[in-house]
Amino acid sequence: MGFRDWCRAARARNGGLIPTDMHTRDEESAHVRQIVDAVLAQGERARQRLLEHMDVLPNGGSPLVSVNADPIARGLVDPDLRDRDWPRAFAARLARLIADFRFGDEHGDFHFDQQDLYQLQAIAEDAAR
Fold first, then answer.
1. What's the predicted TM-score (pTM) here?
2. Torsion sign (Cα): 113, 118, 123, 128
């Protein structure tokens, strides 16, 4: 079951709200961690592609990611560029992107309140560390 389906099912069981019991939070955490892992894996795949083609990159691929690139994207592709605040910034952006995602189908979109966003961000930050 995907995260959207899980959210809908959890809300349906609890009068429109996602329950806050430990079992539900553990399930939510597992879903968010899967998303974080998928995004980090995409960054690693991009890094590997860049490393394979360093000979055609500006300055021979040094730095691997341009200093003009977005800091979150830079850290996603090159883990050596992640400072101590990177996991928090990454998690905040990811939580916002998840919440703002529009599926464009008849099954509806996510509906998160501010507390839900904070929870998503906390789980994502922990997973990114």
1. 0.90
2. positive
